[in-house]
Design goal:
It is a single chain. With about 375 residues, the chain is α+β, with helices and mostly antiparallel strands. The protein has 2 domains: about 220 residues, no CATH class; about 140 residues, Macroglobulin (MG2) domain (Immunoglobulin-like). The chain is about 50% helix and about 25% strand. It has 10 helices and 11 strands. A 5-stranded mixed β-sheet has the order 4-10-9-6-7, with no helix packed on it. It comes from Peredibacter starrii. This is DUF2914 domain-containing protein. Keywords: Membrane, Transmembrane, Transmembrane helix.
Length: about 375
Amino acid sequence: MVKKILHVKNRFLEFYQHHEVLVSIIVFCAGFLFDVLTLGRIDDLLNLVQQAIYLTILGTLLICEIRITIGTLALSERGQKFWQYHNLVVHFLFGSLLSAYTIFYYTSASAITSFFFIVLLAGLMLANEVPRIQKLGLPVRVILYNICVMSYFAFFYPILMGHVGAIPFWLGMMSSGTVMLLVWKLNFKGKEHVHLLRLHVLMPAVAVHLVFLIGYYTSLIPPVPVAVKKIGVYYTVEKVDGKYIGKHLRPFWKVWDKGSQEFLARTGDKVTILLSIFSPARFQDQVFLKWFYDDPKRGWVLEDTIPLNILGGRDEGFRGFGSKQFYHLGSWRVIVETSDGREVGRINLEIKEDNSIEERNYQDDIF
């Protein structure tokens, strides 16, 4: 039995040494798929603990890799046997963490700037599997690790405090920075290899934190953990047996429209935006429905702002709506913004005059 195990181990090691890139990609994808299939709610305690454990393991391996590189850590013969597999563990954990964070950011993204951030994150995730990028070694892993740590705290504090905003963001920045500072102080005190360490470790870590800082104040980073699950344009909204029912006149073939995005207005009609917005349990915050009109002379003009208090915890999201009775005919855009001014959703609509007197046959959307 022992001989068979040793034979399998040797065959795998031989295959891994000859096909390291292929095996790394497979393991990375396995980590990605594992997290996609097992990923729960962003505020799930088990998820948060699992991610903290993954980050701890990754950080420990990264510190060992740095110390081995600069010669301050020498592995025993037994340690070297385990170390030859550390890349597989690193790829699996990065695949798992980055897939989770990409999904969480994607569900909260709305503006095109946020989309660029998601593409950047996904690009870095895939770039880590390119042989030329892998040869860069430490800087890439340091960048990816700092993104993971900063993302973790960017989710953690809003969940803990029950709202988004500058205070949770800065607590996340300081916590992530403190972790990196402690790692630096506890492991890299000496003056030897200081240039290498600054170039390959310190500068990438500082760069990631600067990107997050700029990204927050330019609304580049999506407002996780808030996410619009569903949104639509309706004539009226009714609440029946705990369900919100939006009344619309959308033709059956316009499957891409959300409610009556082509709003045929008669005298007395109100334009109502109904949405469900997810936020974690015990989350109490406010979002704003900002109504923009495409003025023929002035372009997009903010016409109205409607506040909407949200409560977290419901899987399908908190339901709420805002109505506008006084409006112009033409193109409109309603942007959903968090209390710290970041866009979490939007919907476009066209208001046209309806001179018909025929009875309307409304259809229902259930939220």
